[in-house]
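ok trying again, last paste got cut off:
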Amino acid sequence: MTSRTADAVRSEWTKMRTLQSTVWTVLVTIALGIGFGALLSLAGARKYATLAPADQAHFDPAATSLAGHVMAQLAIAVLGVLVITSEFATGMIGTSLTIVPRRGRLLAAKTVVLTAVALVVGEVIGFGAFFVGQAVLAGQGAPHTTLGEPHVLRAVVGAGLYLAAVGLLGVAVGTLVRATAGALAIMVGATLLVPVFTPALPDSWARVVGRFWPTMAGERVMTSRPDGHFPGPWAGFVLLCAAVAVVLAVALRVFRTRDA
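nice, full thing came through this time. structure:
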């Protein structure tokens, strides 16, 4: 990393940590991830008792406790979007480009800082939700697990990786759209609405969407039980990362050629 790039990263880190909205967004993200993880663990424990034996055999305690990512990803997406759209909204983007005239360097600095913050927040959520969720499952007499069981640690760490990828996608979409409301609408559609409405599709279509829609494929990294109907955990996460990389590359191209 060159000294100028390092200076740009330090500048973006200063911006992020001194904004009150960032602090609140981080706290809300953690609260949503762990809080909803506990609630969904409770719901999962109660549902387990009603399942047929064949379905009980496929119950995934790790994924159940990490299910709060459904809400946490929206909050982390907000953080990613605001990294860039807040500057367009206030006109600060002009000042930022005066200080760091190379647009690729400026966007790179923003993505580095956001990725680091989102990864730390995501891992806090992953481990916090896991331990709280397993305590809830155990208290309800449902199957529970530990980090030492096969694939469980990968699933918990994967929660942080997944949330970091979603945050980075938020930066890319925010750079393309430049408006907070529009970027958030796209992120809600990509991370929440598509998975919600996929089961309503014909079975053949639903299987294709479930296998190849980036965020749905990426969620597989948070599971500890194999499912032949979906990509493997790392294959799904690689698909998500590839999609984020493509959107980010397009965003960089547009950012370099469009007036601020």
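cool. The chain has a mean pLDDT of 92. The chain is about 80% helix and 0% strand.
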